[in-house]
Amino acid sequence: MSKYPFEFEHSKPFLQQVGEWVADVFYDILPEAGFEIRDEQIYMAFQLERAFAEKQTIFAEAGVGTGKTLVYLLYAICYARYHRKPAIIACADESLIEQLVKPEGDLAKLAQHLSLSIDARLGKSQDRYLCLKKLDNARSGYEDLDLYKGLYEELPSFVHKSEGMQSFYAYGDRKQYPHLNDEQWERINWDPFQDCFVCDQRHRCGQTLSREHYRQSTDLIICSHDFYMEHVWTYEGRKREGQLPLLPDHCTVVFDEGHLLESAAQKALTYRIKHDLFEELITRLLKNEIRESLAVLIDEAIERSEALFELLERQSESIPGSDRRRIHLNDKLIQQVNQLRKVIDGIEEELVFESELYTLDDYQLRIVEEHLEMMQKALSLFQGSSSLICWATESTTGLTLVVMPKAVKEVLRERVFALNMPLIFSSATLSTNGSFDYLAYSLGIDKYLSFSVDSPYDYENRMEVLLPKREDIASFDGKMKTTARLLQRTEGRALILFPSKEELRLFKEAIPSFPECNGMRFGFEGDSEISQLISEFQLDEQSILCAVTLWEGLDIPGPSLSNVIVWSLPFPPQDPVFMAKREEATSPYEEVDLPYMLLRLKQGIGRLIRTREDSGIIAILSEEIHKDADLRSQVQGLLPKGVDLKEE
């Protein structure tokens, strides 16, 4: 069988031949199979050919219905086979991954109509997998004991055996536990504080087995933005520790919904410090024969760490609309940090002597040293407090200090965009007011190609954008009544988009009090696994899906989604990350808040019309639009040609 889906001629440039084949696919092969010819696809194909040939970064902004996914998949598959390295398709989140690989998705269409055998494997984020150690704890430490005991008993038999495995299969994926809500799942999933190096079950772990599987892919590895950035951030460290990087060598990366890459980078490029974990790790050394001077320093380090986290508890506060707590930096806090750093310095010096005495287990010693090195890197940022962004998060096991260098875009510039490979940003929304500068600046991209093509759909006759009267949405109760009326209008069949988990929670608590919605079936993000929620919403035509993260990527054609309700304009929260961006901006509203909101709102609007036959309404419940003429003009500018804001 030929390696390429066309007859390869060695005398002609490879990518020129790919371009000719792609043109045949869209002009001849797919139309013969019932697909319509789309000039937008051909235009995009020629643009991507240049990006692949010149190994450049390109912003490929193509409206809904242009078939952009098919274009980048064809190029990525051919490019991977030419270089004998897989292409990475990095999606914004796990729900988008599922959309791509579902039985009726684009990969399945290509395989069927082009008679292509495509080796596409999923590289899911670590926190999408069950942690055997946490499951052990959950069986005795939480209220839902029967639930977790049942999950333990359902584990594959080889997990419980100590002898060599004769056969095994991947398990532990979040998708296999759709009945668990997010809180239940977080009690048993992997998190950054799991010490996998010393776990005696790491070779039987579902995450490890899945990693071995996707690393063997010859065509595509499909992962999330979060996972790709975790690979970038941990690449050097894993190599130093003698481990394989999270992803194998690859030849190109496609960032689907690429405008969300910055938030994934911010999430990955962080240090997390937790007192309980530090104490547990450092006290391991006390189980060995060590000198008294080291033991004294360990006790002092635990005391200093405990004091620091007690101070953080007092000097941090909750932020509405965010799960990040704002930390108030002052001299007292920085002094506590410096005192802890000084003790850790002493421990590191003592460990040098201890290692020469060979009294410590070498493996355990390496784990402790790596953790101390991470803490020193994180805490050193406090010396120049203007160079860091920090916040705290709460959990049932205590406070976590999260430290992020401000220079995220510098890291991206060096470790991602300086690579000599084509990088494709694909989305219906990458620009603001016709410019890609906001996104390029945020990511540290200095040189790029770009293009925009509009959607071919008839929005003027298929979409109606409503702006409820100001007096109807000036209060929470007014918004609830307006939403209930809109849901009655389409007999459900609605997606309600919320900017924050808090607003979603308040809506969920209030909706039973509205008798006009009795009998309506609601699905709430967080109540079960997200792809399961989406599937149920699509199959139950008159149901309603309420979500925080589905502003982009959700693809539900047909009458199941005939109504998109934007609960409020999705301005960024007042959390530490966006506060830092505002501080650096000359005009924070125009440079940070407004572009972010407009990009997200445009994505949300794009959930309604997914095929030529789709139609419906979009309602924006915003009091600000009524008060601010310029804001109203900006929102109007997002709408497709021929569609106007309509007050009702």
From TrEMBL:
One of its GO terms (molecular function) is ATP binding. The keyword Hydrolase applies. It holds the Pfam family Helicase_C_2. Residues 27-306 form the Helicase ATP-binding domain. GO terms for biological process: nucleobase-containing compound metabolic process. The keyword ATP-binding applies. It comes from the Bacteria. SUPFAM superfamilies: P-loop containing nucleoside triphosphate hydrolases. InterPro entries: ATP-dep_Helicase_C (IPR006555), DinG/Rad3-like (IPR045028), Helic_SF1/SF2_ATP-bd_DinG/Rad3 (IPR014013), P-loop_NTPase (IPR027417). Keywords: ATP-binding, Helicase, Hydrolase, Nucleotide-binding. Coiled coil: none annotated. Belongs to the helicase family. DinG subfamily. This is ATP-dependent helicase. It comes from Cohnella abietis. The gene is dinG_2.
